[in-house]
Design a protein that fits this description.
This protein has 997 residues and is mainly beta. Helices cover 9% and strands 49% of the residues. A hairpin with a 7-residue loop joins strand 38 and strand 39 (818-823). The radius of gyration is 31 Å and the shape is globular.
Length: 997
């Protein structure tokens, strides 16, 4: 018999009343165990539910809890607590202990899974916001990573405004494939291409010696605002990154931006004012009348022309000295002091269901060269909304506008870049303009570098939109099981414009093509979409099993157009204000998709087993329909969590091992032979490219095994991580020479195998921790060794300018980073670009309650550079030590005439204080409006100790991740450390002020 409606209402009322009696309101405050300060933002969640709250700015919270309920209290950097609520309790104050060893830190282990660091089977580097930019902010995000990633070789390719950084994780990953890590920002695949501006039309850098592009453009990851970043997780090896498939061979950098927290709206304003100066100048030769005359020829010459020129140069020197016109042109070119202005504003807050983070940032920095600089505006909006107890949605969006004037530096075969022109220009020549603004011609070089600097333009302008969404739906949940669906998608679009203008009245233009206007326009769109289903089954407190299955799709489209106009109308930059124009277009399009499954098993919270497999395919592969398989597996055993363990001073003793595979998709168009547009007798036509494509091309396959030991003692105040890895790369993609009879110069081919092995050690200690002083110290040491284990083609030179100057040389059984060169007519081993080891020291000391000192010291031992900057100054007779005596003759003469390439292959070791900053939190009383004031001073890359003869031991003429276009070859994974008159690196000093409302 059915109950009447009135009876149903009565029963409903009774059950509701019982439910109310079963609930109890708990409130209290959460404080730090050492200093007693309140901790805002702590998550207090009812166990086995999605219900909870977050502590406010005063550490207070309030939550309705079921009778006999259990609370899970967690906050980043503190130990997670499980607290049983006593029946009838209404007040519960909580004291949280800092998690010194970060054992409770949650780390990403897959596309939709995480694990506590105490159970992690891989090495994953975590960098928080303070470590990234809390000491001495770098100019760009990628520069801020230097010295902070064990296992990585990070090189600043150029000191030009706007950055340009090369990052190699655990050695050589690829030669011609992608050698830079995959960047993921809030689940969005972030494009990091470097796109050349067409400067080769003026410099001719790639017309002789090396066909690779040498424009050295900035990296697009530099667009990202470091102030928006909450933390970074770096997956260095295939065993950790395998589930990201064919894009993860060089590692994965997972960036999480800041999110809002429930509570009152918090407003934060931060401002930086500082300066930038050149780190180091090489110095210039000090001339005398005699050495000035020697520029015309030796004093023993009987040639009347030489004798006349010697007299003229000596007279010119004497006249210049008498007039006080001896100039240090190196200091004149690179001696500017650039003003730094950086202002950021952020708002964050929200309610129980919706939180938000909104930020805006404006960065402006003048370069150390006149008319250079960097400007960046960015806006970010992150919103998280809990639609119900089972559905949540997060949306992240950002807009970036960046503008960089980068000058004209690096290699040059036409004598037009600043450094190449200066290398042969003595100090007694007057290059300054007269009263009418007319620049004199430089008789010692093809250009007047001061005129070039003052009149030319090399600008990169980027407008970028990045947006994504993350949908999480909890499909079912009970005491032992929960299932969730995660949908994730993102789009990264940028428009990139380059404008290089060389007026017709420049010295090197007036008798040549009479002006260049080179304008480029690139539109690039990347999308990624993924769907994941994850089930966690916990039959009891000792067993937890997580099963994940998912599918991903990534697409990319780039359209690059460069138009070169010559013979310009005086004073005009428009392309149509010229006599000749040439347009080049390069387009690339790809589609990658993958399917994966992963299983994670946790036993007694001490043993973790993980296994997964991914199936990947790409339109860049020879067989675009074929799925390639990439497996992974890992195991860890935390012995200190076993019941038999009774050593109280050792809280963590974990042994771990992991294996995984990932791929590296072949470069776009490697399976095709290009057809290049051409004008043939006034008719349109095409020419076959001299690089032969390969329709059977396969992705490179990387297999890596790593094992390690993690130990934490003294309640986590001392922690050690030790890791050994061996990484093998099969089917390495190479471009190798073909006989001229084939009609081609080179061919794409999977031609060999590589191997890397290395050691990474990390020690973290907190020697002092009390109310007055807290000192945290981290020391990292790492090394890598590479070898070519298989090469099916003859050994060959790659990545520099030939045997006579020293070049990278691929040879079976030898290091992939070896440098060979001609010594006494024979080809010999003369160097290795791989460092012997690297070491970093990061310390943070808080003292007198409100002062904080942070500093980072980076030591790179070994690793050789090919220093062609010194070669050019020797050839131009302007080296600072040219007149020193070496082996009975002048040093500059000896070095160029010795027939020994090893002279210019030099040790690039250094010790550098990368960052140092002192900050003060102003104590505030009796104010409800201003919540905090911070003051600070900092120095970035201010102090360097090195014996390297160059502007900076961190350098790469060929840049990194430069794309291959229809007319130029992209960068390769070996050429880091080639030094050819770069834009000198700068050091920065800043004053900081921050106010929180």
């Amino acid at each position: 018999m059915l109950l009447p409606k009135s009876s149903l209402l009565v029963l409903l009322f009774l059950f509701s009343t019982l439910a109310l009696f079963a609930q109890q309101n708990i409130s209290g405050k959460i404080k730090d165990a050492v200093n007693g300060k309140p901790i805002p933002g702590v998550t207090i969640r009812i166990q086995n539910t999605n219900k909870g709250t977050i502590s406010d700015g005063n550490g207070a919270y309030n939550l309705a809890v079921p009778s006999n309920g259990t609370l899970i209290v967690s906050f980043t950097g503190y130990k997670t607590q499980t607290i049983k609520v006593s029946p009838g309790s209404s007040s519960l104050d909580i004291t949280m202990e800092e998690d010194f060893a970060k054992l409770d830190e949650i780390v990403v282990t897959g596309l939709a899974t995480t694990v506590k660091r105490s159970n992690l089977a891989n090495t994953v580097v975590t960098i928080n916001a303070n470590q990234l930019s809390g000491a001495a902010p770098a100019q760009t995000f990628d520069a801020a990573l230097s010295g902070k990633v064990p296992g990585a070789l990070i090189t600043a390719n150029s000191g030009a405004p706007g950055g340009g950084i090369s990052i190699k994780m655990r050695g050589i990953t690829s030669v011609f494939g992608n050698s830079q890590p995959l960047y993921i920002v809030d689940g969005i695949f972030f494009n990091n291409s470097s796109i050349p501006a067409g400067l080769n039309d003026v410099t001719g850098a790639a017309t002789a010696g090396n066909p690779n592009n040498q424009d050295n453009p900035s990296s697009r990851i530099a667009d990202l605002n470091p102030q928006d970043i909450e933390n970074i997780e770096i997956l260095k090896g295939a065993s950790a990154a395998a589930l990201y498939g064919a894009k993860a061979a060089a590692g994965v950098v997972i960036i999480t931006t800041k999110k809002g927290r429930a509570g009152k709206t918090r407003i934060s304003v931060n401002h930086e004012t500082g300066f930038a100066k050149v780190r180091h100048l090489m110095g210039v030769r000090t001339f005398t009348p005699e050495t000035a005359a020697d520029l015309a020829g030796p004093s023993s010459s009987t040639d009347p022309t030489v004798i006349a020129r010697r007299a003229a140069y000596a007279a010119q020197y004497n006249a210049a000295k008498s007039a006080g016109k001896i100039y240090d042109y190196e200091k004149e070119m690179y001696g500017e002091t650039g003003l730094i202005l950086n202002t950021g504003l952020s708002l964050s807050g929200g309610g129980e269901k919706t939180t938000f983070y909104i930020s805006g940032n404006r960065r402006q920095e003048e370069g150390i060269v006149k008319n250079t600089g960097y400007f960046n505006n960015s806006v970010r909006v992150n919103i998280d909304h809990r639609i119900s107890d089972y559905i949540s949605l997060g949306v992240t969006t950002s807009y970036i506008h960046s503008d960089a004037d980068r000058g004209l530096t690096n290699n040059d075969n036409n004598g037009v870049t600043y450094g190449v022109a200066l290398s042969s220009t003595p100090d007694f020549v007057d290059l300054f303009p007269n009263a009418l603004g007319e620049y004199p011609r430089n008789p010692f070089a093809a250009s007047n570098p001061l005129e070039t600097r003052d009149k030319m333009k090399n600008n990169e302008l980027t407008n970028r939109f990045v947006g994504g969404a993350n949908l999480e739906v909890r499909i079912q949940q009970n005491e032992h099981s929960s299932t969730k669906f995660i949908g994730r998608g993102g789009v990264d679009y940028f428009n990139y414009k380059t404008a290089a203008l060389f007026p017709r009245d420049l010295q090197f233009e007036e008798n040549a093509l009479q002006g260049h206007s080179i304008q480029g326009n690139t539109n690039n769109t990347n999308t990624n979409l993924g769907g994941f289903l994850a089930n966690t089954f916990t039959p009891n407190e000792n067993i937890s099993l997580t099963s994940t299955v998912g599918a991903t799709l990534e697409t990319g489209f780039m359209d690059n157009i460069v138009t070169v106009a010559t013979n310009l109308v005086s004073g005009q930059s428009n392309l149509d204000a010229s006599a000749n124009t040439t347009t080049r277009q390069f387009r690339q399009k790809y589609r990658d998709n993958g399917i994966f499954i992963q299983e994670d098993l946790s036993l007694i919270d001490a043993i973790t087993l993980s296994g997964g497999i991914r199936f990947d395919r790409s339109t860049n592969n020879g067989d675009y329909k074929k799925y390639y398989v990439f497996p992974k597996g890992a195991i860890s055993w935390n012995i200190a969590k076993m019941k038999f363990w009774d050593v109280k001073d050792v809280q963590n003793l974990k042994i771990r091992a992991a294996y995984g595979q990932s791929g590296n998709v072949p470069p776009y168009s490697s399976k095709f032979t290009g057809m290049l547009g051409s004008n043939i007798g006034g008719y349109p036509g095409i020419l076959v490219d001299n690089l032969l494509g390969n329709p059977d091309i396969k992705p490179e396959r990387q297999s890596e095994f790593e094992t390690g030991l993690d130990v934490s003692v003294l309640n986590g105040r001392v922690s050690l991580e030790a890791t050994y890895y061996i990484k093998k790369i099969q089917d390495v993609l190479l471009r190798h020479a073909l006989p001229g009879s084939s009609g081609y110069a080179n061919e794409w081919k999977n031609s060999g195998d590589l191997k890397n092995n290395g050691i990474e050690l990390g020690l973290t200690a907190i020697p002092i921790n009390n109310k007055n002083i807290r000192w945290t110290s981290s020391i990292n040491w790492w090394r890598n060794r590479s070898k070519v284990t298989k090469l099916i083609i003859p050994p060959y030179a790659i990545g520099a300018f030939g045997n006579s100057l020293g070049t990278f040389y691929l040879e079976q059984g030898e290091p992939a980073t070896q440098i060979k060169g001609t010594v006494g007519g024979d080809l010999k081993l003369i160097g290795n670009s791989e460092p012997k080891f690297q070491m970093s020291f990061y310390d943070e000391v808080t003292f007198l309650k409100n002062f904080t000192l942070r500093f980072l010291v980076h030591w790179k031992k070994g690793g050789d550079n090919i220093n062609l900057t010194q070669l050019l100054t020797d050839l131009g007779a302007t080296s600072f030590d040219y007149d020193d005596v070496l082996h009975g003759t002048k040093a500059g003469v000896y070095r160029t005439g010795a027939g020994d390439a090893s002279i210019y292959v030099q040790d690039a070791s250094y010790v550098r204080i990368r960052e140092i900053g002192l900050y003060y939190n102003v104590p505030l009383k009796n104010t409800n409006f201003i919540k905090g004031i911070r003051l600070g001073v900092s120095a970035n890359n201010f102090f360097t100790w090195t014996s390297y003869v160059g502007y900076d031991p961190e350098v790469s003429n060929f840049g990194s991740n430069t794309i291959t276009t229809s007319t130029s070859r992209g960068s390769n994974g070996l050429s880091t450390g080639v030094d050819v008159t770069p834009f000198p690196a700068s050091k920065r000093g800043s004053f900081h002020v921050g106010v929180d409302f």
